[in-house]
Amino acid sequence: MSALPLAFLSPWLLVGLIALPALWLLLRLTPPRPQTVAFPPMRLLLDVVAKRETPSRTPWWLLLLRLGLAALIIFALARPIWNPQAAATAGSGPLLVVIDNGWGAAPEWDARVDAASAAIAAAGDDGRAVALVATADGARREIGLETADEAAKRLRVLAPEPFSPDRALLLPALSDWLKANPSADALWISDGLAGGNARAFADGLTAALRSRSLAIRIDPARSARGLAAADNAPGGLTVKALRAEASGPETVRVRASDLRGRSLGETDAAFGVGAREATATFEMPVELRNDIARLEIVGAKTAGAVQLLDQRSRRRTVGVVTGATSDTAQPLLSPTYYVTQALKPFADVREARGQGASTAVESFVEQKLPVIMLADVGALTEDARARLGAWVRDGGVLVRFAGPRLAGAADDGLSPVRLRQGGRTLGGALAWETPQALASFAGSGPFAPLAVPGDVTVTRQVLAEPDADLPDRVWATLADGTPLVTGAREAKGMSVLFHVTADTRWSNLPLSGAFVDMLRRIVDLAGSGPAPRDAAPGTQGAAAAQPQGEPAQAAAPRATLPPTRTLDGFGAFRSPPATAKPAPADGRPAATPDNPPGFYGPVDAGIAVNALSPDASLARIDLTGLDAAVSDVVAVEPTPIAPWLFTLAALFAILDSLVVFLLGGGMALLARRGPKAAALGLAAVGLALVAHPAPGFAQAQPPKAAYDERFALEATLATRLAYVSTGDFETDRIAKAGLEGLTQQIALRTALEPGAPMAIDPAKDELAFFPLLYWPVIEGAPTPSAAALARIDAYMKQGGSILFDTRDALTGGRGPEGESLKRILAGLDVPALEPVPRDHVLTKAFYLLDEFPGRYAGSPLWVETIPAADEGEERPARAGDGVSPILITGADLAGAWAVGSDGLPLFPTSSDERQREMATRVGINIVMYTLTGNYKADQVHVPALLERLGQ
Amino acid sequence: MAVRAGLLDPSETRVAERHEEAALGLAGSLPRLVVAARRASATVVHGLHGRRRSGTGENFWQFRRFTAGEPAGRIDWRRSARDDNVYIREQEWEAAHTVWIWIDRSRSMAFRSSLSDTSKVERAVILGLALADVLVRGGERVGLLGLTRPTASRNAIENLAQALIAAGDDDAHLPPAAAPIARLSEAIVIGDLLAPEEEIAATVASLAARGGRGHLVAVVDPVEETFPFTGRTEFLDPDVAGLKLVAGRAEEWRQGYAERLARHRAALADIARRHGWTLHIHRTDRPATEPLLALHARLAEPAA
After folding, report:
1. What is the tens place of the pLDDT at every residue in A795-828?
2. Does B258 touch chain A (CB under 8 A)?
3. What is the ipTM of this complex?
4. Are residues A55 and B229, on separate chains, in Cβ contact within 8 Å?
5. How far apart are CA B257 and CA A664, in angstroms?
6. Where do the domains of chain B lie, and which CATH numbers do they carry?
7. Interface test with A, best of B236, B240, B243, B255 (most A CBs within 10 A)
8. Which residues contact A281 (CB under 8 A, 6 or more apart)?
């Protein structure tokens, strides 16, 4: 039986198979039933001396049938099971269950937990102790043995962690434990990824187990998908999607959402055949891209498939203005060429084309760019200067490059330092002998982390007046101590001055790589816009106290940032757990147990830590050569096949009796009654043989109902009112007559000419065609099925309105119809309801109404609660955002509207015909309300309404 | 498929109109039957046979003297004129032969197998009624033994059939042991004659006590002759409830049964010969005209 996945729960019953030969012998000896004949000369037969005769034998195939029947029954009684639950490991000692709960285990977490709990339950059934270890728990000193129940409880509480655990940390504790429990077996439910020393862990585990068995459960086909290396490039936002298997083509959908969780865009990343990486690109405007805070693979419920973006990946738009005429024929001589090239990798450059400097500056300020670079701009117009100054103070970063014009212009207050007139040239009066090299970056400036380039030389520069605060503003100095770059904070913004030109005339700084880094650091200083930043990084207070202050740095003066929001193992946001520690301000490439992925620091100025580092790649764990039993995580359900065997045995029994019947001359019995009876009997027997009970199979999904075009045309070619057919003939008749009457009145009194009302069944028909649904609630109405409730819910959410009419105003609404309504509404997402307030737009939608009678008066009409009116706002008609999706009344409205074919009303009202007129007005108001919404609540109508109301 | 054989329901074996019609049809194919006169007779017209005594008739018998008290219209004046005495002419008593028919309607006659079209009783009834019609057309008188008086009317079949219907069920295997038939009458016994030989001998002896002639017609089903049963078979006696025989392999009984049947028939032939009767064996799968013709021939031949 080892070849087949078959096991017997009561194998000792198979001993009964011994009885089969005895049965065979018995059947052979037992002669078959004789055929009976009425024989007139029987008396003569009596005189015939019969010789000793051998009895007639049962035919061999009948024998086989009976033996098979007996064998089937014996097999079925032994309770065979197909695909038996393979015990995790068949052993007697304690069971060690190691379950991976890093981010890679999150997508199929339920299946893993099920497999682990099944193994623990099996161990518990066998009476073995269990030790449960989760790999993300970190190094443990010792592992304890528990009973299966305790282990199962602990398993339920386990959740995947959002980082990739280092499994090697567990090996010492596990080896010790395995040494202490020599008869233990091990089961490892792995996530299939090779990261985190998986193979080393497996090797260590097998080594520690020595001769005992290790069972590994691994999903052979799929593993978790990851996202890494989100990059806000000039063309778009790109992110790499990773997978561990180099299998066939696959498309994953990546969604970008902002901090609030609103989806900003979705795009696809397609894996090629055998590829383990794919790139997804979001081509969106920069402003939208800068809002993106979170990228995730749709449907992959794991923290590894989430990339968080902080403000470091925001692209800034930089406006570059030059005072010199741009010479497009010789681009390398253009003053902005080098700056533009240097800015391109991390910012979007906007240049002023064909405009004067002042105009360009004004337009950039209007566009609210965060950074403006002026390359050799001398004087600006008064207006431009004022606006630029205001812009800087509002939070913009102004970068100026020196040049002949600047050197010759008067100080306009837009530089961080006062400039000394007259530059310094090589060989000039205030000159060097040799070009000066860049010596150092100021420790308090933004360039502090940068390495000083050795290849930058300066031949000419402008000088700064040596004021008292000059040293604090110097960011980069030359070898002889003169500043090369100075910068100062101004209110919320900053102004920076490069004492050389933006091109290579005065220095070769624009040619060096350090130029790019310096520009990047400066651009990073700017927020994404000059809007007031309430969480200026770090020391805004400090900056206010110290007017010179350390220049505010995007790298906060604090070395670590506390976590504000972290991801759990499934990639959802949660408040940081107790084990999360502050992360260094420069960020971490990948998450660790101490720094789970999430946002650290203030919202606008913090950093994001991601589960996968930008250079991460996923690979499947390599289990070749490992002495372990590898199987699938999801074990196939064991199926008992005893019912099948019993069915087969029953079939054989029927066949046997049929055969005996036929052999005993049964056909003669049938034939005597006539061939028709014989045929009938055969047909009945055949039917009985064919119609055997088979185990029910899950029905294949029924094909989606074909779109009922005729219904759709009918429903939409005219606006129609619709009523829900309840199944009760009388109620449906009244509803139809009522809606017909209402339709007539609407056509008479208003501009709308509806078509004839239609009956619909919410379970089958498309509801979206109807603006208003009238639902008469009867006692004992069946609760709609889940599918019907979903459709009704969708209808109400997408703007439809349902008018429920319980028609029990006389009994005060506590009757069985109320119960039915409660039942129906229990499955729907119903908003808060209130009786229609006096100033609801429903009271003013067409007619001015005080109350809402139908056939019965006194029953309130319930609508969705609208937000309370603001203080001081006295409007005659108010409404919420949309039309109330649900209206409930107890006055029998359809009964009041119902007219017969002769045009006379069908039912009397509770008082008089005036109430019927009011009921008609109620109906028209409701229909107008559902069709026009808040139209009447608009301010435009207030004077008219007030006039009508007599105020 | 094995041969199917069984007894029919009593409702199906009761005499009905179809028997009359079938008998008429069968008899229509035969010429009228005139029973051969056993004594020579002047003419054989209408089956009236001279009885050698005076009585009613058409042939001259004798002249005898007129005695007082006889009606005067009987005087034969021509003969009386030749003499001085007055003479009365007497005719010979001519009477038709009486043929007595007896049909076995017991349960065992209701047997019918798949090898034949009709049950034995049906064949017997039709045979009997047809024979009656042929005889009556030939002027004889026919009666059912034990049931009716002899009748020579044209509607003999109907009368006899009505008599059979009225008689209801009858389980006797042999004619009732009543008074023997007259010397010049004939008896025809139609049945399966499976009763024990002694009983048959006794019955025949009592019927033929006065010298009447008879014919035995044994109607058999082909199954009873060929015994085609195989396999395990249980045989039931139709008349005696509860009497059964289980044969393990029926085909092994075939030979024994055939021998026993042959002995039985030999005994029957012997009985018949002893009393000067004849025996006919008729299988129901043979056409009914066969025994009719045979009987026709037998009845029409002059006595040896």
Report:
1. 888 888 999 999 888 877 677 888 888 888 887 8
2. no
3. 0.74
4. no
5. 23
6. 5-39+97-300 (3.40.50), 50-95 (no CATH)
7. B236
8. A235, A236, A237, A238, A267
